Description:
The protein is an alpha+beta fold and 198 residues long. The chain has 8 helices and 7 strands, in the order H-H-H-E-E-E-E-H-E-H-E-H-E-H-H.
Amino acid sequence: MNQLPNYSNDDLKRIDAIADHIHSIIELLGEDSARQGLLKTPHRAAKALYYLTSGYRSDAQAAMSQALFDHEGSQIVSVRDIEFYSMCEHHILPFFGKVSIAYIPSEKIVGLSKLARVVDICAHKLQVQERLSAEICHHIQQVLQPEGVLVVCHAQHLCMKMRGVEKQDAFTTTIHHCGVFSSDPQLRAETLAILKNS
């Protein structure tokens, strides 16, 4: 197996154990795990799953704390259309889409790339979209202590497209907010319009 340099010995042991389980799953599905095209599949799939669940081994709040700056007067800070890829906890199938974030600084702002990093960390777990939106909002609120945070998530779910109802064009939108975005409906509506139209 090719080893990425940032894998610890513990990581490699976990990946090997996951690969053993995937090997068994392949056989239980009725495939020949010794077939040429499948020989390396267990380790490839194990490494992919380990990466796609790296949020369990990352700290979103610590990542944000590395790039905090004194606030210099912005009334609303927004970053729109941060793409993400996650795994549905119900079927372990992908869901993916875009997250838009707005916050009103109090005393601190954060480097914009760190907002995208928080999205990635929260998405790289077994997730549901509703909790994903809430976790992103919570982490930003905890670290920045802003006047308010608003998170909008639009996603497509392969568990709806590939199985079950098989609805190819279905999109799901979740919104989570706190602070002044919760207490001021007009501000919330104006900010949602900015995120939609800017």
